[in-house]
Each structure stands twice: as structure tokens, then as C-alpha cells.
Amino acid sequence: MKEKTRSAKASSLKLDIASYVFVGIIVVFTVYPIIYTLIGAFKSNAELTLGSSFFPKEWHPENFYTAFIRANFLQYFVNSVLISVAVMILAVITTSLAGYVFSRREFVGKKLWSTLYTGLMFIALGSVTLYPTYTMLAKLGINKILLGLILTLLGAQLSNVMLVRGFINGIPRELDEAALLDGCNPFQIYWKIILPLIRPIIAVVALFSFRTAWNDYITTLVFSISMPTLRTLTVAVVQLRYSANAAAEWHIMLAGAAISIVPILIVYAFCHKQFIGGLTAGAVKG
């Protein structure tokens, strides 16, 4: 009996060690690029290109000043904030309403739309849709303003809708029935009962949508080709790679990248508890 207990403890210890090692490897691969970017932003271009040492032999904080002035970061920072916040707010509104309707309401073709939504989650058209989307917005006359870019980045919310629907499915329907008896209409049930209860998953949707809009490159690049004033930080950072004499300036680009990732890190620092809580609760409820 003692031998079986020892064997079980040994197996459990090995499993714990393997788990810690696996998580440690994932953390290293996730965090290392961020640390490398932040440290590399203080190096000279020659030192960064040679890659002789991890830490700078001589620190160059002026790289950040050069990046900020050359890329007109103030304007592009404002663009990024406006676009990301607008996409986040609209994503929260649309996904919560859609998730509520799919979970609680009955309508013609509900099963068909649910199947289409689920199936389209696994289809990635990517840049194929950029041209028809741009053409459609051009015909509407909103391809040269931030609104067109915001509406474009607002798409692809299928996974968020499914997350919200799964979360709402875990809320007892008796609450809806009690509200109906009290005279509430469907929208009041959504606003007064469902929405306060799904705040954890709303935080997940908000962070996902903000991150996606903030980090987007291809869509913003296409829309800002004819309108440079629509550029965001992500597009501006790539423009820092080459100087006036066409020489690659990786140190300036990394400085710009370091500036651009700081806001999303700050947002996550304030929202990580809600983010993790929402994912955990959604996994249990869904």
C-alpha cells in the first residue's frame, strides 16, 4: 500500500514538473519578443544588426525621440486610439445583442444562421475581401474617413458572438420568465438582467476587439495608401524601417514598435483580472 502511495506521489510530482516546464517554455516564447523589442530599441543600428549582445553596450534613448518625430506619432496615436476604442465599443454592443438573440429569442432560420455562423468561424478569407470591401465603402463615400476603417475592422466578430451566446446559455431562463411577469419587454431583459450578468465575457470581447484593431496592419495599410492621415501606429512603425537614404534602420523601427505596444500592455494590465475571469467563467458556463 505504501509503495502504491509513493508511486502515485512520484507520478504526480513528475506531472507537476512537466507542467511547469511546459508553461515556462510557453512564457519564454511569448515574453521574449516583447523584451527583445524594448531592449533593442535602446541599441544602435550597427549593434542591433550584428546581434553581438542582448543588452546594449551603449544606451540610445534618443531613438524614441527620432521615432516619435519622424513618424508623426502623435497624430497616428490619436488615430489608433479613436479606431480601437470605437471598434471595441461597437463590438461589445453588437456581439452582446447578437449573442442574446441567438441564445434567448426564436426567429425564422435561427438554426440555419447559427450553422452558418459556426461554419464561417473556420474560414479565413483574409486579404481576399479587402478589394470588394474597399470598393463598397468607396461607393458609400466613407473610404477616406475613419468611419470606413472602423466599420471594416468591426467585422469578423463571429467567435465573440459565440462566446457571448455560450455565456448567456449558462444563465437560468427563470430570470427571463420572472422579468416577463414583472412587465419587462425583451430589450429590458437584455439591458437590466442579461447585460449585468455577462460583464466578465464582455470584458473578454472588449479586450479582444481592442487588441485586434490596435494591431491591424494590412487593412489599415490598404485604406491609408491614398489617405496617409488615416494611418495608425502599426502602419507608421513599419514606415520607420527605411530612412531618407533607403538604409534599413532597425533601431528606429524597434523604438517605434516599443512605443506602440506600451498602450496595449497598459490596457491589459488594468483588464487582465476581468479577462481571465471572463475566459474561465465562459469555459464553465459554455
Gist of the model:
The protein is mostly helical. The chain has 14 helices and no strands.
Q: Note poorly predicted spans.
A: none
Mean pLDDT: 82
Please tally the helical runs, counting DSSP H or I stretches of 4 or more residues: 14
The main β sheet shows up as: none
Residues in β-strands, percent: under 5%
**Helical fraction:** over 70%
N-to-C SSE series? HHHHHHHHHHHHHH
SS-based class? mainly alpha
Terminal Cα separation, in Å? 41 Å
Q: How many β-strand runs?
A: 0
Rounded to the nearest angstrom, the radius of gyration is: 24 Å
| Shape, per Cα inertia axes | globular
Task: Describe, in plain words, how this protein is organized in 3D.
By secondary structure, the protein is mainly α. Helices cover 75% and strands 0% of the residues. The chain is built from 14 helices and no strands. The chain has helices at 2-40, 45-50, 62-70, 73-104, 110-120, 130-140, 146-153, 158-169, 174-181, 186-197, 199-215, 218-223, 233-239, 250-285. Helix 3 (62-70) crosses helix 14 (250-285) and helix 4 crosses helix 7 (146-153). The longest helix is centred in the first third of the chain and has 39 residues, at 2-40. The radius of gyration is 24 Å and the shape is globular. The model has no long low-confidence stretch (mean pLDDT 82).
Q: Which key terms come to mind for this protein?
A:
single chain, 286 residues, mainly alpha
Indicate the topology.
Blueprint: H1 2-40, H2 45-50, H3 62-70, H4 73-104, H5 110-120, H6 130-140, H7 146-153, H8 158-169, H9 174-181, H10 186-197, H11 199-215, H12 218-223, H13 233-239, H14 250-285
